[in-house]
Amino acid sequence: SQIQRAILRLLETNDFPSFIKILSKEFKDILNIEHVSLILETNAANENITLLKSLNPVTIIVAENTIKEYLAITGHSISQHVALRTDIDLLHKFYENNSHKILSEALLNLNFDNSNVSGLLILGSKNKAKFAAGQGTELLTFFAQVFERIIARWLT
Questions:
Q1: How distant is the alpha carbon of residue 67 from its chain centre?
Q2: Strands 117-125 and 35-42: what pairing?
């Protein structure tokens, strides 16, 4: 499946720039999606967070509580690991570098234990049925957990 291929590709990375390169360039093809954003919020200085600022458009660094506020606007909570929705606000800053009409998104809430960083991975598709409420989220939840563990190596 696409999720397993994406996980295997991420596991092949051995440094942070390679990880971000795969996320920004290969993920869309592997997952057959049009948009990927890695949202990170932190109040602490971190060398890799600083590096991320130069690797946009995939990564967006935001102030504390921005993710919680975004999830609240979408009708979801920070306690949900994965949320699927089809009512997308393409004017939101999380989509500012997007050139496609996104009709559905998967919001993967990322929790990095022992870190001052929290995150949200947004996967967007022009296919309205790709990420719709009522679909199973078990595989995306597993993907989010693997993603957390991989990226946590460089954030802690």
A1: 11
A2: antiparallel
